[in-house]
Fold this sequence. Notes:
The protein has helices spanning 63-68, 73-76, 82-99, 112-127, 140-148, 162-165, 174-192; strands at residues 5-14, 24-35, 40-42, 49-53, 104-109, 137-139. The chain contains seven helices and six strands. Strands 1, 2, 3, 4, 5 and 6 form a six-stranded mixed β-sheet that branches. The protein starts with a strand and ends in a 5-residue tail after the last helix. By secondary structure, it is of the alpha/beta class.
Amino acid sequence: MPRPDLYFSVDIEADGPIPGPYSMVSLGACIAGTYDGERFTAHPPERRTYYTELKPISDQWVPEALAVSGFSRERQLQGVEPKDGMTGFADWVEEMCAEHDRGRAVFAAFPLGFDWLFTYWYLMAYAGRSPFSHGRHIDIKTLFTAQSGTPIHAAVKRNMGHELLGDRPHTHNALDDAQGQADLLANLLKRVLPPAG
């Protein structure tokens, strides 16, 4: 049997625009589904999850960016050390892959650029490795654009129907939003990939 792709929906909150000068505040992830090259199988996003809140790595932050997450600087300072949070995340992804036919981890986000930038940088800086390699990722926003013919600037959730988004509210809690992204990814992939038999 070939090793399947195992899709992880990942969302992060940050206190600024780039990692290094600014910090990741929290990371949430869940398994969205598997694809074996023939069939896509959606997984309930609540079943297998990871969530962490991280201490800041610098003294800089953008108050407006931090406020989006609902965090105060005081709460941010109570997070775990980035090495512990990111090593725990890498370990969890690898454990999930082992449990799912040695699946190959694929990072999925909406939009990909921001969440991937922070997550990959943090994984390499603090865990010393990335279970997603450097190139196994999918941009849910681009997938929607390709399917719908919507220009990328208009590929926003308010322009997507309930049949794609489902019932989960967008809360800016990293785990809540990762689960919402998982629903969206599964609904988009079900349109173009054969369902599991």
